[in-house]
Write a structure and sequence with these properties.
Largest sheet of chain B: 13 strands, mixed
Radius of gyration of chain B: 27 Å
CATH class of the largest domain in chain B: Alpha Beta
CATH superfamily of the largest domain in chain B: Dipeptide-binding Protein, Domain 3
CATH class of the largest domain in chain C: Mainly Alpha
Protein name (chain B): ABC-type transport system substrate-binding protein
CATH architecture of the largest domain in chain C: Orthogonal Bundle
CATH topology of the largest domain in chain C: MetI-like fold
Radius of gyration of chain C: 26 Å
InterPro entries (chain B): Peptide/Ni-bd, SBP_5, SBP_5_dom
Chains: A mainly alpha, B alpha+beta, C mainly alpha
Number of strands of chain B: 24
Helix content of chain C: over 70%
CATH topology of the largest domain in chain B: Dipeptide-binding Protein, domain 3
Family (chain B): Belongs to the bacterial solute-binding protein 5 family.
Number of helices of chain B: 21
Number of domains of chain C: 2
Distance between the termini of chain C: 68 Å
Shape of chain B: globular
Keywords (chain B): Signal, Transport
Structural class of chain C: mainly alpha
Distance between the termini of chain B: 69 Å
CATH architecture of the largest domain in chain B: Roll
Number of strands of chain C: 0
Structural class of chain B: alpha+beta
Number of domains of chain B: 2
Oligomer: heterotrimer
Pfam family, one (chain B): SBP_bac_5
Helix content of chain B: 25-40%
Order of helices and strands of chain C: HHHHHHHHHHHHHH
Shape of chain C: globular
Chain lengths: 341, 603, 340
């Protein structure tokens, strides 16, 4: 790119993108604040005393009355719930954005920032592998379907993708457990490593990853196919064909690379899912990722974790949008020229 | 540029995978020397125990997850006092001799020499003093979010290092003193903690809190590794003061309840403990590769009635409700078949319910002489089934008696079985609060068709635990609206009813009544003649007052049975299910797997 | 004169007929076998569910009646779908289970479509500050994970009766799902706004409200219908997820999601008593699939670039392609032959 515009330095090329990126990033701040307010308001509206949530049925069986009362008051002050909500909101904002403190988890009895990293990383591990395979598989079959539009291959694929998007992920997960674990006895049930060291760790990843692949594959394939069909209709593909280039070259050199543009921006849409994991799937596989953490947090009404996780998702979604916009700008000359100049 | 796009895509994916691979995985582990003793190869097989998720709080004082407690029991085993399979509080193996002064105010323990912590440090009286003072420093302790009530009981602690004795001067002694102060107060390793705290410039409490998932005890098993939401790994302690356990390695693995049974059947875990549902128990019983122990749980399911609210202020209404309540159906729906409804306070393991010559009956479904003398609120037909018509008739009879009375609150109850009973001019409607856990069972038990025959309404409302708890204890600003609460109860080793039913524990609505931490009662029942009884029970001699305690406790149970502040719904029959390769493993309600495993071995 | 009228009425297949866009869509849809399969599947599932619902309602079928002696029986003539752990007839429960899904699907879709179209149209038509504001709102709502919000909101309404909470869930689903549609409609309107017929409408001084309602919205309706089917399918999946997590209605009311959730609460039962999950699972799957098939068919049908509309045209197109292929093959053969 730099070579094409010989006279410009790298700095000059990057500046417009950086400016645009900077502008977009600044523009998400008010939205993020609004989101944080909604989250805080919703969570404050959740009925019940958060401290009472710590006294979970199976937890405090052996406490005496005095112990319990003292405990409740101690914890209330310890976690700052003795202050009014408005003050708590600003304390929360300050702690979260300025100090990187996300509050105190009643479920884990630890500050949230000490625990959340590991869960995000584990969700990310499953999802990135899953998306990698989903892209790897969907791109060639999506292209083939577009090229063979309305032929048997394409029609079969259309039916299959519709079947795919109609399968609820928890149902799919159960079917996979039945098949691979109970009947074929090839894979372990759940968890993420074998404490005895008998089963290799990767086997624990197979089922959650498969669910991610199978649930994202149908929509991804449809997306690739649609993008490809659009491109194949375009003038330059007709031109390329007219020039007498072989069909392979036309498809993979010219058409596919252009179809890739919308596909790459899809990554932006997947950013939240990439880190967020899925509540239902992670619960079924007892896979300790973000989804699992969030469902645990709901069960224990662990407000600190719910707040942090929701804000995190919100931020990722917004960043994903920025990624899409900037991605389009980098990729599409029309948008680039329009925005930069 | 198109190539760059592909490169970008590939790069994103690769970078992400790299990131994922580098993601922090933080197992906490303590490096320990390998056991010196040669073990037989078959004994090296680790025992994998399936468990619900733990918090990682392997030090006591902070939250108390039952599943965390299992780990603590393995790592420490006992405090100054411990219990035996019969549920009696006895001196622990740490203690060579115990002397208690005549007035019970001075307790002196002589400690055995040569007991070692897992880190090699010797356990001395100084460690014990350190431990108690650790929990008695209220300010420093609460700054870390923990609590303890030792201050109320303990006045001073003195030690004599030469004689290896420690003396507690107590300022308050009640029947449960020994169990609440000396039982399961795990001793902390003073040197390691003070050194660590100094190095990190923290208080000792902060240091322990920071290392809460890294327990150093002196018990049968040494903590090796904890992986959050995954498992805890432990290995046998070669220097254990008692008999060295034959199982050399224990792994407690977090197992989701959805798949735990198949995990057992397919050998991913070796043991599941305290299961109550027939759907899970029966497939294992049918498989001869597995063995099982079963026992009636020291606790059970309850329904607590607020005896100071609306129609439930009237004893007859509560009794009528108890008759109308189809307890066998709850057991049938919720547990399948493994449970019984008891008349006394929910546990089949209270020795107080039985005569001295009925010891064989303790822990069985059979009723002792005393329990038989209590009212059974289920009328059964010739086949032993819940007789719907007879129970409803009995309920109507009791309600009609209440309608006939006109003094005080009784004036508010009017109507009859055919046209429906009325409370303050409105149709009588009992509102039951419960959590999702019991939702299906209670909706099906009190179903519309059945309720339509009762002459009064029953509404079931599902609540989240914290909200329900607020209503239950009266600590809520919301309008009072529930008559009854569905819960469960687990018993401590020594029961003190005054903690739940003392008159001073019950407060007006809007103030949290401090009767009962969660399910240990939590009713609002008070009776003036009770108060002296409660005080007498509490003040029974902790060591020699056994017979007196039994007699007084039975008085309490009789009133309880008549006034129905709590309906004992069921006592679960729990099953510990395990692989048939394990032998000499005998658990019971008072002897959980963490204790019984010390005597077990692989075949 | 009369002769001419006679002639103009006597349409024959050879005549050029101008079909309205709606007629074209219907013809195209009818010619799509897959879409029609989806349509009939949808109609039959809906009618069976509706009939079952009213039948059980009027006969007073007791969904809470339990029969311990009939526990977990495999399918038989008496219980075509077997019985559940409480000895209840799974057949009736599965059919009744769709009733909640249908309500959730229809109501929340209507809600999402109404809000989405209104907001999108306003945003697109007026532009400027209103557009910016609405798009920010969209961004905020879009940034919440659906399940997480549903979880919190249903926690807030925990102590209300199950039917009330069901409507809360419908509200949540409808309120969260409108953002995509709003964006879509906005984009369409933005481009339509500049077209001559709207400029003409503006010049004629037609009221803004009428411009939007009469001229803009009808032009985006086709896309809205397609997108609506997706919303419908998603709403039903959403309800199933919520049931699965125990946030929907309570016993004894069955829903497909709840039936599946109960079946999967214990993997051993799942394995031994296959009928407790296969039937509700299949129903849920088939129902969502039928909606998706209809959506797919509609999408194809509204595509103006499609090369054929009627059956005849389709046949003709097929013939043409065959001929081309044949020609190409022959050409290849000829060239090969030439080379030899």
């Amino acid at each position: 790119m730099e070579n094409n515009r010989g006279s410009k330095t790298i700095f000059e090329v990057i500046t417009p993108y950086a400016t645009y990126l900077g502008k977009r990033l600044i523009s998400i701040i008010p939205v993020l604040l609004l989101i944080s307010l909604v989250i805080f308001a919703l969570i404050s509206m959740m009925p019940g005393d958060p401290i009472m949530a710590m006294l979970d049925p199976e937890k405090t069986a052996t406490m005496t009355t005095e112990e319990r009362n003292a405990y409740v008051e101690t914890m209330r002050a310890f976690m700052g719930y003795d202050k009014p909500p408005v003050q708590r909101y600003f304390i929360w904002l300050r702690d979260t954005f300025l100090e990187g403190e996300f509050g105190y988890s009643i479920r884990f009895n630890k500050p949230v920032n000490q625990i959340i990293g590991g869960y995000i990383a584990r969700s990310f591990e499953v999802n990135i592998i899953g998306f990698f395979f989903a892209f790897l598989i969907s791109i060639p079959i999506g292209i083939t379907a577009a090229v063979k539009k309305n032929k048997l291959y394409d029609k079969t694929l259309t039916v299959l993708t519709i079947v795919g998007i109609s399968l609820p992920s928890f149902f799919l997960a159960l079917l996979l457990i039945m098949l691979f674990v109970v009947i074929l006895k090839l894979l372990p049930f759940s968890g993420m490593s074998d404490p005895r060291g008998v089963i290799p760790d990767w086997k624990y990843l197979v089922l959650p990853v498969t669910v991610v692949v199978l649930t994202s594959l149908p929509s991804l394939t449809r997306y690739v196919r649609a993008a490809m069909i659009e491109v194949l209709k375009s003038d330059y593909v007709r031109t390329a064909r007219a020039k007498g280039l072989t069909e392979k070259v036309v498809i993979y050199r010219h058409a596919f690379q252009n179809a890739l543009i919308p596909v790459v921006t899809l990554v932006g849409m997947w950013i939240p899912a990439l880190f967020g994991g899925s509540i239902v799937v992670e619960r079924i596989f007892a896979y300790p990722g973000m989804g699992y953490l969030l469902s645990e947090a709901y069960n224990y009404k662990d407000r600190a974790i719910i707040q942090t996780a929701l804000l995190f998702f919100g931020m990722l979604t917004l960043l994903g949008n920025v990624f899409i916009d900037v991605g389009y700008m980098v990729v599409d000359p029309r948008i680039r020229e329009g925005k930069v100049k | 540029m198109k190539k760059k796009m592909i490169l970008l895509l590939v790069f994103t994916l690769v970078a992400s995978m790299f990131l994922a691979a580098c993601a922090p995985k933080e197992p906490t582990s303590v490096d320990q020397g390998t056991p010196t003793e040669e073990a037989k190869p078959e004994n090296l097989r680790p025992l994998v125990v399936g468990s619900a998720d733990f918090n990682g709080d392997f030090h006591t004082g902070w939250t108390n997850s039952t599943y965390d407690k299992n780990i603590r029991q393995l790592v420490w085993g006992f405090g100054l006092m411990t219990d035996n399979p019969a549920g009696e509080v006895i001196d622990s193996p740490l203690v060579e001799e115990k002397t208690v002064s005549e007035d019970l105010s001075t307790w002196t323990f002589k400690i055995k020499e040569g007991v070692k912590f897992h880190n090699g440090e010797e356990l001395t009286v100084s460690d014990i003093k350190f431990t108690y003072e650790f929990y008695m420093d209220k300010e420093a302790l609460e700054a870390t979010g923990a609590t303890s009530n030792f201050n109320e009981y303990i006045d001073t602690i003195t030690i004599d290092e030469a004689a290896n004795t420690i003396t507690f001067k107590l300022n308050k002694v009640i029947y449960t003193t020994d169990s609440s102060i000396f039982y399961e107060t795990w001793i902390l390793a003073e040197d390691m903690i003070t050194e660590g705290a100094t190095a990190a410039s923290q208080t000792v409490q902060e240091y322990v809190k920071a290392n809460i998932s890294n327990p150093i005890g002196y018990g049968p098993y040494v903590f090796v590794e904890y992986k959050e939401s995954e498992y805890v790994k432990l290995k046998a302690n070669p220097d254990y003061i008692g008999n060295a356990p034959a199982i050399k390695e224990i792994i407690v693995k977090h197992t989701p309840s959805e798949t735990e049974l198949d995990q057992l059947l397919l050998g991913e875990v070796d043991m599941l403990f305290a299961l109550g549902e027939a759907e899970k128990i029966d497939p294992v019983l049918a498989d001869d590769k597995f063995a099982s122990n079963n026992y009636f749980r020291h606790g059970g399911g309850t329904m607590v009635l607020h005896t100071d609210y609306e129609a439930f202020q009237l004893t007859e209404v509560r009794q009528a409700f108890a008759y109308a309540f189809n307890r066998p159906k709850v057991i049938e729906l919720f547990l399948g078949k493994y449970g019984v409804a008891s008349q006394g306070p929910y546990s089949k393991n209270h020795w107080m319910m039985y005569e001295d010559n009925e010891k064989d009956l303790i822990g069985t479904a059979a009723e002792g002489k005393f329990e038989k003398s209590l009212t059974n609120y289920d009328i059964v037909d010739a086949n032993g089934k819940f007789d719907e018509a007879a129970n409803i008739a009995k309920a109507h009879e009791l309600l009609d008696i209440a309608v006939a009375k006109t003094d005080g609150e009784y004036a508010n109850l009017t109507g009859n079985a055919d046209s429906g009973y009325m409370w303050k001019g409105e149709p009588l409607n009992i509102k039951i609060a419960l959590t999702t856990f019991w939702s299906d069972t209670y909706h099906l038990t009190w179903n519309e068709e059945y309720v339509s025959k009762l002459g009064f309404g029953v509404t079931i409302v599902g609540l989240d635990w914290p909200i329900m708890y607020g209503h239950w204890t009266g600590n809520t600003t919301e309008e009072r609206q529930y008559h009854a609460y569905v819960g469960g109860i687990g018993y401590v080793i020594k029961d003190n009813p005054r903690a739940n039913y003392g008159v001073d524990k019950i407060k007006d609505w809007g103030h949290p009544s401090s009767n009962g931490p969660r399910f240990t009662g939590g009713s609002t029942f008070t009776a003036e003649e009770w108060d002296q009884l409660m005080i007498d029970i509490e003040n029974t001699h902790p060591i020699t007052g056994r017979d007196q305690y039994r007699e007084l406790w039975r008085e309490y149970v009789k009133t309880f049975n008549k006034e129905v502040p709590v309906i004992p719904v069921y006592s679960n029959q729990y099953f510990d299910l395990y692989t048939g390769d394990l032998e000499n493993f005998s658990t019971n309600a008072l002897w959980p797997w963490t204790r019984a495993i010390l005597d077990a071995n692989w075949k | 004169m009369s002769a001419i009228t006679e002639q103009s009425k006597g349409f024959s297949k050879d005549d050029e007929v101008i079909l309205s866009p709606t007629q074209q869509i219907i013809i195209k849809f009818k010619n799509n076998k897959l879409a029609m399969f989806g349509f009939w599947l949808f109609v039959s599932i809906v009618s069976v569910v509706v009939v079952t619902h009213f039948y059980t309602k009027f006969t007073g079928y007791d969904f809470s009646a339990t029969h311990p002696e009939l526990k977990n029986l495999p399918p038989s003539w008496q219980h075509p779908f077997g019985t559940d752990r409480y000895g209840r007839n799974t057949f009736v429960r599965v059919l009744e289970g769709g009733w909640i899904s249908l309500q959730v699907g229809f109501l929340s879709t209507i809600m999402a479509v109404t809000i989405g179209v209104t907001m999108g149209a306003i945003s697109g038509y007026f532009g400027g500050k209103i557009d910016a504001l609405i798009m920010r709102i969209v961004e905020v709502i879009y940034s919440f994970p659906f399940l997480a919000i549903a979880y919190i909101i249903s926690a807030i309404f925990r102590d209300r009766p199950a039917e009330f909470r069901l409507f809360v869930i419908i509200g949540i689903l409808g309120f969260i799902r409108w953002t995509g549609l709003a964006r879509l409609v906005r984009g369409q309107i933005l481009s339509l706004k500049e077209q001559e017929f709207i400029l003409a409408a503006k010049a004629l001084g037609i009221k803004k409200r009428n411009q939007i309602m009469r001229h803009l919205i009808p032009n985006v309706m086709a896309m809205v219908v397609v997108s609506g089917t997706l919303t419908f399918a998603n709403a039903i999946l959403g309800e199933a997820f919520l049931s699965f997590l125990g946030l929907s209605v309570t016993e004894p009311i069955p829903t497909w999601g709840a039936l599946l959730a109960k079946a999967s609460s214990n993997s051993t039962s799942l394995r031994s008593f296959w009928w407790i999950w296969v039937f509700p699972g299949t129903m849920l799957f088939m129902f969502i699939m039928s909606i998706n098939l209809i959506g797919e068919g509609l999408r194809d049908a509204i595509d103006p670039k499609a090369e054929f509309t009627t059956k005849e045209e389709k046949k003709a197109a097929k013939e043409r392609r065959k001929a081309q292929k044949k020609a190409a093959k022959e050409g290849k053969l000829v060239s090969k032959g030439g080379a030899m």
